[in-house]
Amino acid sequence: MMYKILLAGDGGQGIQTLSYLICNTAFKNGLEVSHIPNYGLEQKGGVSMAYIKISDKAITYPKFSKPDFLLIMSDQARDRTADYQQSGVEIIDIKDHVDFFKENNVEPYSRNIFFLSKISEMLEKQEIIKKQEIFEALEEKLSKKRGWEENHRVWNLA
Amino acid sequence: MSEKQRQFLTGAEVVVQACLDAGATQMYGYPITPGTEVLTGWINQVDKLEDKMYLQTEDEIAAGFAICGAVMGGKKAFTATAGPGTTLMQDAMSMADGMRLPFVAIIIQRGGPSSGTVIYSQQEVNLAIHGGNGEGMRLVYSPSNLEEMYELTRLTFNNAWKYRFPSVLLSDGFLMKTRQPVELNFEIENVEPTALVSPEVQKNIRNIYSFEEELRLELENQEKDFNKMAEEVTKSESYKVEDCDELIIAHGIVAGAVKEAIEELESQGKKVGLFRPITLSPFPKDELNKLAKQVKRLFVVESSMGQLRDLVKQNLDSKISIEIDGLYRPAVGIESEEIIKAINK
Amino acid sequence: MAKEAKFCPGCGHPIVLRFLHMILREKELESKAVLGLDIGCSLLAWDFLPVNTFQTHHGRVTSTMVGYKRAQPNSLSFAYTGDGGAYAIGMQSLMWAAIRNEPITVIVVNNSNYAMTGGQQAPTSFKGQITDTSPSGCGDEPVFGPELVRQVNKKAFIARTAVNDPKQVKEYLEKAIEAQQNGNFAMVEFLSYCPLNWKTVGIETNNYLNDNLKMLFPVGEF
Q: CATH number, domain at A94?
């Protein structure tokens, strides 16, 4: 098994936090995992990407040219990842969820939680990590912080 | 800590841990991406400690010369730098070349020339090996993964102090930012530092000579010592080289992608091996030539325009006539898919 | 005792160095002293005195001694340099060592030219001074090193004197050593002779120092 995930968004959207939660959960489950962040010069507002590989065998190189799954969280992230939007790549794009977010009052700061929930669901379907375990990691990180109730609601919405 | 323990660490965290475990006590540096995490990581670790220190200097030049002074005073001192910082560091490293100082630099390659990118490259090979004026001789390690980076960082300190040549752990922005599970090998014994200049002995140390004969003599001795060291420290990895028809040559993180590619090529029925110099200087010449005699083609893969290829050519026995092709991708990562395509072309 | 001088006859360097040695011997500090040498005529001091010495690079002796002192806090660390090494190529490091109040003693020998390379314009060359690189006369005002360094460090011992005032040479060197022993940065600039590049003979050299350098650069503590 070798599962490749590329997460892309704007700096500040929480791409690297999502990555850490996914990867650390995989690590705790004894899986081989690699995470390599990639961002431009901007401290805020640039494209932030995370290359993730999860496997049951040793990982010798952390990058890839074709992911199994791609998350696009912004317009500039969509442009930056054009080469990765190939056939056979499962893509979740924020543009397909704009209406849903509006209908359900999902604030921008909680949208990453929505996507994390989606990704977790997919990882469970692939029998890589259980969704509940990622939720527990999220809970550990955010439950004592402001907005947890809203984040929790958004997780369940997905 | 002697037991192997599974940890989830970034390259920068691994390097800082290795420097601490190597017995380093002083770091001098200047923030520069992607080397900053080593500086901040070290500072976070030693800020409250009495016996270890750091100094953020006004530039890389000052950092480098402070290291020269500190190692003469008998402290295991080091820096971490990158790109334009590596250029500035050459001033001090050249003094370390000339005076045989146990100067340790963690070089984290980024894109060049100039400010280039803050991300990644393999373009600082020449600088790491031959960045000074004259032909300064240095020990240069290029790790391919995080566990190896830990061991090689420890060896960089040990061999710097054992053989007294400036020593470089040459890494890159990708490896430094990669987070992976690691089991570090703590079972490495440290070489203890000793002061080159101390109140107990009176010494007058030069780096400039009145007569060219004096310098020639010094350089002859340096070369002799370096060759002797080479017998003991030169390192390489040969991967799936038995009966291979083609030999890919790569170093550092790129070799990781090559291993992925070889696995795929194997399933396509191709016999391709990997030769990976772990010490870029001294270069594992004998191993290279032994393998070069067995194969039909050498294929260099690197994130530069050909700095590794030039090292290969330099070290290839003049009697061996062999085709050298390559995939040269300056300052960008090379994925296995690209390597497979290039080999099959 | 000191070996044969490699300095030109009439050079000011040996005056500063011999006074330094005299003080170190009197105070029994010879073994603790480490003399880092910049490149320039300073480098000729590498085996002049029976104390630890090492050469560095041009402009880099201050940074090197910062590291040495941090490695050997009980040493007496001297950065010995010319005016070019201190105020041109090494200015940044000199200022920052002073800003951080590094406990080292910087000795600047100012002869208003780059002597080792044959007499080029220096940061201390005065307006109108003819040198190899200012054949029509130097167009810039000189750098006033001690005055400048004082701006960034209030605790340091900072002074200027001339090699033809032995009493003050000794006094300031002693005070600069004391400052380091008290944990402070110290810098003394010595207005010095360079008969070779000034193209002066005998008493002319002393007159040149008095008429040009000493008229321009105020001596005293700052």
A: 3.40.920.10
Nearest residue to B177 via CA among B35, B67, B324: B35
Q: How far is B118 from chain A (nearest CA, A)?
A: 7
Residue C37 CA to residue C44 CA, distance in Å, equals 9
pLDDT at C2 over 60: no
Torsion of CA C89, C94, C95, C100, to 10 degrees: 150
Task: For residue B259, list chain A residues with Cβ-Cβ distance below 8 A.
Answer: 60-61
Average pLDDT, stretch B21-41? 97
Q: What is the token pair recorded at B296?
A: 């039909």
Instruction: Please answer yes or no on whether B119 and A37 come within 8 Å at the CB atom.
Output: no
- The whole-model pTM stands at 0.96
Q: Do B95 and C72 touch (CB under 8 A)?
A: no
- Domains in chain B: ranges and CATH: 6-233 (3.40.50.970), 236-344 (3.40.50.920)
CATH number of the structural domain spanning residue C29: 3.40.50.970
- Count of domains observed in chain A: 1
**Closest approach of B313 to chain C, Cα-based (Å):** 34
Q: Which domain holds residue C155?
A: 13-221
Q: List the single best residue of B8, B303, B339 to mutate versus A (max A Cβ within 10 A).
A: B8
Domains of chain C: total: 1
For the stretch B246-300, pLDDT in tens is 999 999 999 999 999 999 999 999 999 999 999 999 999 999 999 999 999 999 9
> Does a structural domain hold residue C5?
no
Average the pLDDT over B181-198 and give the result: 95
Q: Do chains A and C touch (3 or more CB pairs under 8 A)?
A: no
* pLDDT, tens only, B120-174: 999 999 999 999 999 989 999 999 999 999 999 999 999 999 999 999 999 999 9
- Structural domain span for residue A62: 2-157
Is B178 in contact with A34 (CB distance < 8 Å)? yes
Whether C6 is covered by a domain: the verdict is no
Cα distance between residue B345 and residue B270, in whole Å = 13
Place of tokens 């307006």: C127
Contacts of A62 in chain B (CB under 8 A): 174, 178, 180, 253, 256
In 3D space, the residue among A28, A120, A39, A32 whose CA is nearest the CA of residue A74 turns out to be A39
Chain C, 120-139: which have a CB under 8 Å from a chain B CB? none
As given in the structure block, the two tokens for residue A48 are 């932030």
**DSSP per-residue codes, C111-125:** -SSBTTTTSB--TTP
The amino acid at B323:
E
